[in-house]
Write a structure and sequence with these properties.
This protein has 218 residues and is α+β, with helices and mostly antiparallel strands. Helices cover 16% and strands 42% of the residues. The radius of gyration is 18 Å and the shape is globular.
Length: 218
Amino acid sequence: MRILTASFVSPDEFLCHLRDAPPERALFYRSRGPLADGEPVVVDVTFPGLPNRALVRGTVRGPVAGRGAWIVLDEADASTCAFLLRLARGDSNVDPLVSRQFDRFPADLPVECDVERADGGGRERILSRTVDVGAGGAFVRAVAIPPVGSRVTLAFPPAGRQGIGPIRLSGEVAWTRRAAGPCGFAVRFADRSAADARALRSALRRASETGRATFATA
């Protein structure tokens, strides 16, 4: 799956290239290169005010030679699309300090979180799913959100017939989100065993080619 870079000089330019007609959203991708109708792609969106690159899956529709094509955005990434739309319209604000050193990739993975709360509330276990995963951390969906600074160990079960899990990755809650996108918390990885670090690197190498992280070797 190809990753297409869509950089816009302003939020207004992004909005001009977005066709928002729920349940279908589409983004016009400018390109002089070949695009195949029906080709699955990942669009890497950037515009001023967006603190981190946003990766959104989609399908090429109606390519026009020498101009580009509409990319129909995947419903599975609807929350990301809605966040981009609100941010571009000025309906949402983001903390400028929330920035990443590493790329994140869409990853809807089951995860078990062992949390040691930073507010002295003891330990708790959260069963949930991730939104994205990268070399530096992951974002986990949650309703009961642990406070920033809480220690967390994420356990990913084996996936697929040749799963390489379970993988355990430890870190701490770096920031939380209660609006403007899926609610949950971001974990910044700290302690990793050699085997788990290799498994994570392998998953991210595949993600750089497919645009989606998975811990299955396929």
